[in-house]
Amino acid sequence: MFVGNYNLVHIIDLVKDAKTVAVAGHVNPDGDCVGSTLAVYNYLKNAGKTVDVYLEPIGQEFYELPGAASIKNEYKDKDYDVFFMLDLGDVERIGVVSELFSKAKRTICIDHHITSKGVADENFIITSLSSTCELLFEMMDIDLINKDTASCLYTGIIHDTGVFHHNCTSKRTMEIAGELMAKGIDFGHIIDHNFYSKTYKQNQVLGRCLMESMLLWEGAGVVSYLTRKEMDFYMVGNNDLSGIIDQLRLTEGVKVAIFISEREPHSFKVSMRSTVTDLDVSKVAAFFGGGGHKMAAGCTISSGTVHDVINNITKQLQFQLHAKGYI
Asked: What is the pTM of this model?
């Protein structure tokens, strides 16, 4: 099957003779990561395969996805015939299961990030697609996609497209969404549950981040942050912070939004969103060892204070903003 100039292989053909199969995504799993790993899990399970899924703890908005209860957060030594790396292309970002990936008989990377390094035995990387879930759909037989798989694929697509708002959304993306809706998924609930429904604590911490945010470069940028101490005060975890960066991005006049959260003492997760197509935040993320897309990227910086992180990130962004005439 072809997508553009790419000749893709059917997922089932990749595991035809495999007795042991594993699927893993990147650290700090987002919607496309969780959606893609569970989509492959459900799809292959429906085809009679036994699959192990490895992910770091996921956000509670993903708990109701089919197969979520089967996710393993820890691993025991095991040899796999096939190991799928989904929604990433760097072994370092696969987390604690990198050892299992490295010794698997056959490794496969399926990804859409422009920073993907293609480190597997076989790599299916198409950066023009909205999400890894969109790419997976193209590698599946529509007749073999059941409601469970469709729910996972739809979840991943709406996350990486911002519910079809981001410019990575294409005509084909919308066609695929329609095909998934035709499988009987509760698409309205999936959108509400993933984007709009929040706990009281999540609303509190969102409010704080908006109140404490700072405009940069006379309004061309906005930044907010949350320290570990503040997270403990509000009794929220890392998975309660989704949506904050996207709300900051909606600030009128802003060209780039930055949200920083202290995940561990002196270890900061940085999320960046660009609102203009000629500002590439993935370059800044890559500079600090992270990755992502042109208009949505992130990295982890494990040194200094939160103010040091802000200074380092804004210094790199400022080069682009100045070159493009935004400041």
From this structure: 0.84
